[in-house]
Amino acid sequence: MNKRLLLISIITILSNLTVYSNSKSNKHWDFIPIPTISYTTDLGLQLGGLCDIYHYGNDNNGLYKEKIYLDFGWATKGSGYVHGYVDVPDIWKNIRATASATYKISSLYPFYGFNGMYSPYNPVMDLNSNTKTAFYSTGLNMLRLMLTFRGNLYENLKWVSGINYWHFKVTDIKSKSFNTLNTLKNEYIKAGIISADEMNGGGHLEFREGISYDTRDNDADTHRGIWAEAYLYGSPDFSGKGYNYLKSAIHFRQYIPFFRGKITFAYHLAWQQKLLGNCPFYMQQEIAAIELKQPETDGLGGRNTIRGVLLGRLIGDGYAWGNFELRCRLFSFNLIKRHWEIVTNPFIDAGIITKPYRLDKMMKSGNPVIYSGKQDKPHISIGAGLKLIMDKKFVLSAEIARPRLRQDGEYGINIGVNYIF
Question: What pTM does this model have?
Answer without folding.
Answer: 0.89
